Amino acid sequence: LPWQELVLEPVAKRAKAENVRHANVLKQAANHHSTVLKQWRSLCRLLTSPRSAWADRNPPEVRWKLSSAETYSRMRLKLVPNLNFDQHLEASALRDNLAEHLHNPAESLPLAMAKEAKVSELEDDQLAEEDLPVLDNQAEPKEQNQREKLVVSEDCELITTVAVVPGRLEVTTQHVYFYDGSSEKDETEGGIGYDFKRPLSHLREVHLRRYNLRRSALELFFIDQANYFLNFKKKVRNKVYSCILGLRPPNQIYFGSRSPQELLKASGLTQKWVLREISNFEYLMQLNTIAGRTYNDLSQ
């Protein structure tokens, strides 16, 4: 009857809300347990590592991997312990045709994405005038002790060679923040999760990038050789890029909406190479960086 439905409707809504709340609490508890467990393992390794308080007399075999730290020539020369070493037995079985069921090859990208990848014009890889702030070349530097203010906050993805990490980027007048939004945070070189906080004054370069053939990403380079590849939703990338340019970081090299061709000309790299001020390797690495090549995305 209609009157019974009216009476039971608030009860059903309340029950649904309670079920959602209970599921969220269980998920939060599981995430907290996972994070605490990883932190505990990290502490155990710290206290039982060589020359530590409780060093293990029979330490396990240490596996190594290439660190993400780079030199100015974009060379990676440092090795760090691989705490999550994987022998990739499933991949080996697939390679040797030992698996019972082979996965179907990935489907090709849709035609629409292929059309987005067309690069017939220079304007494809630069911003329109309406996307850029009015930059005053005579702008006075901001005082260091002024109150930090949020400039832009957007959902995004941190692209690494091993994972795509959902999260949120926040740019303030003094810092660049990324908050890892993964349900289960991985153990990384810097601790638990991919969160980072970088001073805006350390930002060296910001390049427009593509991800999955779409013009939706940015790559940030800092003076300490750290770099991050961030993918945004459609039309959000230009907004974030414009806001960063508007803040005029003091150590940023390139300003404006130059295309890769214009960036190469403005950088003077070719002239430096001709005059032997830089090596062949340095020239090619900088050339690839300007062209869009990156260590952070295996497809590029």
UniProtKB/TrEMBL annotation:
PROSITE patterns: BEACH, PH_BEACH
Key words of the record: WD repeat
GO biological processes: intracellular protein localization
Name of the molecule in the record: NBEL2 protein
GO cellular component: cytosol; membrane
SUPFAM superfamilies for the chain: BEACH domain, PH domain-like
Taxonomic source organism: Piaya cayana
Name of a matching Pfam family: Beach
MF annotations from Gene Ontology: protein kinase binding
Domain BEACH span(s) in chain numbering: 258-300
Domain BEACH-type PH positions: 145-245
